[in-house]
Each structure stands twice: as structure tokens, then as C-alpha cells.
Amino acid sequence: MIHPDSPVLTSGIGISTPLASFFETAAERALWGDMGLDSLNATSDALPHAWARSQVIGKLAKERDNDVLAHINTDNTARDMLRITQLHGREKIQFWGFSCVSS
After folding, report:
1. Rg for the chain, CA atoms, rounded
2. Beta carbons of 93 and 81 less than 8 angstroms apart
3. What's the CA gap between 18 and 49, in Å, rounded?
4. Rounded distance, CA 97 to CA 48, Å?
5. Buried b (16+ CB within 10 A) or exposed e, 59-76
6. Running DSSP on this structure, what letter comes out for residue 67?
């Protein structure tokens, strides 16, 4: 439950600037975008298949990087979130979330 006085901040590559996207078309995004992580235990080969897909997507991102991806990391994100919290007059941040990308 979120306290009603708490600012709710959202982040992610969908609303960040500059835009960090390595898919060139909507069709490409649709093809690769849904990783199906909710079904990793559905079959004996689901996890290795997801791992292989993530490796291909990681290589694609590296090849198409427009010098933005190096700045999207835990250190920079944590610093930015703390700064936003401080600008709202708070000293501490309480955060819950998950990462959908790994290096």
C-alpha cells in the first residue's frame, strides 16, 4: 500500500529522455518485446530459450546503442531517484521495484 502523501515516481526507458530504444520498427519491438517471463517454468526448455533470447537482445542493444545505454545503470538511477526525493523535500527514499534488464 502506498501512503497517500508519498509521491509515486515511475521510470523506465519508455518515458525516459533521451529515448533509449534499440528496436528500429514497431514490428521488431513486438517480435522481441514480450519475453514471456511469466512462463519460465512452463517447459523444460523455457528457461534456456529465454536466456538465449536475452543474449541476442543484449548484443542487439550493444550494436545499436546511441551512447545512452552506458548511463542507464544502478548507480545513476539510484542517484537520480535520491535527487528527485530531495527535491520533494525528503531526505530518504523508500523504493520497491525490479529490473527487467541485466548486464
Report:
1. 17
2. yes
3. 31
4. 25
5. eeeeeeeeeebeeeeeee
6. S
